[in-house]
Amino acid sequence: MTRPPAGRPCWAGPGPDPTAPAGTEPAPPPRVRGVLEADVTVVGAGLAGLSTAYHLAERDPSLDVLVVDAEGPAAGASGRGTGLLGPRVGPPVDQAVRRFGPATARRMYQASTEAVDRVLELCARLGVATGPRTGEQVVATRTGDGLASLARQSAAYRRLGLDVPVLSAAGIRERLDVPYHAGLLYRAAGLDPAALSGALARACAAKGVRFLGNSPLRALRPGETADTTLLVFPGGTVRTRKAVLAVNAAAGPLGLPVGTVLPLLVHAVATAPLPAPAREALGDRTGCALIDAHPLAPYFRLTPDGRLVLGGGRPLLAPVSDDSGSAAVWAGLEERLRRLHPALAEAEVTHRWAGQIGMTSDSLPVVGPLTGRPGVWYVGGCCGHGLALSVAHGAHVAEALTDGAPERLPWHRSSAPTLPLPAPARPLLRAGLGLLERGARRTA
Questions:
Q1: Which domain of life is it from (predicted)?
Q2: Which of 177, 215, 252, 365 has most Cβ atoms within 10 angstroms of its Cβ?
Q3: pTM of structure
Q4: DSSP run (H or E) holding 310
Q5: What is the pLDDT of residues 136-168, one digit of tens each?
Q6: Residue 170 phi/psi, 5° resolution?
């Protein structure tokens, strides 16, 4: 698995500690040693955890906030995203109307657009570059079933009074020279999620937030008093008044009572900088990204230095025993990339990487207090849409922990549905993912 070095557009792996000033080479973050104390301990230094710590420090500077990660800031999925920032949460809008009613479905969509705005405002405040210039994202289809699905969604948006324009094939071609039949146009952006994670970590450190790394959480135990919790790590223990477990799909191995948050490994590839004609055909002029409406079908965007980043394909149920599955997914993505446009037939793929996301069976995240664990919150299960949602979730939890009364939405809950996943059931789940992938391939 090849990744560009930290600081390149769109990617960063578990490299230098992003809490350090630019241009320095800091020592690895210290581990948890002995018995420590904190007012609030955030476990997980991805976007959700860093956003929680940042907003806690902003709302109440007197709090002693500690962030602990199994590795370090942006070492997980938050450092491996493809950088598509768009509005999406939960099921398609027509399904949300049926499940939650028109008023809640409308508010859900508005909350997702506000989450995009929050990230853009945060990037401006922290000096993180964003793009594309026009801030557009097309969710498009080239199948009859996809057209029917987008028509239902468009009708639902209209009934809810939400402005989500429909694009014809010609409208898509004005932005991207790709053979799609129709699409829905969303206001969106692109950014380097690792750069945002690093900037958030530095901002937290500047506000007095403490960081410890290389310390995976092993267990939670009741504290000596009713208002404390003990967090157990390999090298020591943290006694904390409140805890936020921004651990995503690690909830399962920890035995957290949050329902089933499936750990899925998703993949992406990136090309070398493309020649000008290829960049022009794939959105350089308009700055538009595209997401295929079919589950698991590819999505792509251009980076500021002219590379094409393409993600999608079959996710793998983690943990995986070797790299053979990932190699097959990357090969499939490269095949789809070369069929996307004639100008990509000879494009060099220079980087391949993967990151683990958390999926729930009802497509909704989980953001809420743990049942039976006073003062302990969980954040996870963004279902691949965490770039915008994670920042919003951190702000929500920070408000709740500082005696605020945040708005409640369907994903502000303590658990997702539970799926029985004994060992014999895992091959069935893998087979289901394979069927979805084959359907996605038929859309090419």
A1: Bacteria
A2: 365
A3: 0.89
A4: strand 308-317
A5: 999 999 999 999 999 999 999 999 999 999 999
A6: -65, -40
